[in-house]
Design a protein that fits this description.
This protein is mainly β. Helix content is about 10%, strand content about 35%. The relative contact order is 0.24.
């Protein structure tokens, strides 16, 4: 059997001319996009309902104490996400560094989508009563929808707090042109205890790595072409890598560029295989990496 395989390989390398590839799947390329700092951020405070805090180095929420609630507003422009990307993960990340009087540990904080007309809020104009300093929210304290909302609980120690906002990011991608709008609030509205949770804003300069950030993971289709069985295909600078089984038993394929494929650890099944004039060996024609494991199997489906 070993002798036969060696003979077949010799025939392949020096005699034969056209073939087909069968690729059962295609790879995807995983990527991460980090937007830091937030494009705009601010907090709006019921206790000073017409005051803007857009230049503060902090953003915060206040829960538990009616008439003193506070919400945080953030938006992120992620139009640098490549066209055709599929978002597979997204986290909104704020660095928690302080609370006031009562420890909010265990409190639930929600991240929601800001609704229109408040969608057009401004960093240096928004207040508890107005989204841009002139026009009123439909509901004081900010307009938002709970659809796709993300929650977490305040930890017992300072550090990064990360909301899983995958559903929101996918929504912003599909309906808002890759522009994310978040409102953060404390779910406690009835306890009567003042709970303030404070994070650094995009104005914080002492350590810019602690500013708000949106981290998105996404995939892009592999640029390699997916080849179906019984299909003729011309290789012409199509792929730079391939780790799939290659079935050469059907159809025809013409090698046009010796740099088209870089085969690594593959199985090649063939029936009739011919190398074009000017492409004297499989190694040169397909650019098989030296030292690669390449197995050849003969498999025919009719007269050869």
């Amino acid at each position: 059997m070993k002798t036969k395989n060696k003979f077949i390989i010799t025939i392949l390398i020096f005699t034969l001319s056209s073939f087909i590839l069968l690729i059962e799947s295609k790879d995807i390329l995983a990527n991460t996009l980090t937007i830091q700092p937030s494009t705009n951020d601010n907090y709006i405070y019921q206790g000073a309902s017409n005051t803007n805090y857009g230049t503060s180095t902090a953003i915060l929420t206040v829960g538990g104490y009616d008439s003193l609630f506070a919400h945080s507003l953030l938006n992120f422009n992620f139009t640098s996400l490549p066209a055709g990307a599929t978002i597979t993960g997204a986290t909104l990340n704020l660095y928690y560094y302080a609370y006031v009087t009562n420890n909010p540990v265990g409190n639930t904080l929600w991240a929601y989508e800001i609704n229109t007309p408040g969608y057009f809020w401004t960093e240096t104009g928004s207040t508890w009563n107005k989204y841009d300093g002139t026009n009123a929210w439909l509901t004081a304290g900010g307009d938002y929808t709970t659809t796709n909302g993300a929650s977490l609980t305040v930890p017992g120690s300072y550090g990064w707090m990360s909301w899983n906002v995958l559903a929101l990011a996918q929504h912003f991608q599909s309906t808002h042109g890759n522009f994310a709008q978040f409102l953060i609030l404390d779910a406690d509205t009835t306890s009567g205890t003042y709970y303030q949770t404070t994070w650094y804003s995009n104005n914080y300069v002492d350590n810019t790595t602690l500013r708000p950030k949106l981290i998105i993971t996404y995939t892009l289709p592999d640029p390699c072409t997916v080849i179906s069985n019984n299909t003729n295909w011309n290789i012409n600078n199509t792929c730079s890598k391939l780790n799939e089984e290659i079935d050469l038993s059907y159809g025809n394929i013409t090698l046009q560029d010796r740099g088209s494929l870089n085969l690594t650890n593959v199985n090649i099944t063939f029936c009739g295989l011919y190398i074009q004039p000017g492409k004297p060996t499989i190694r040169n024609a397909l650019k098989i990496s030296p030292g690669s494991k390449v197995n050849f199997f003969r498999k025919c489906y009719g007269p050869t």
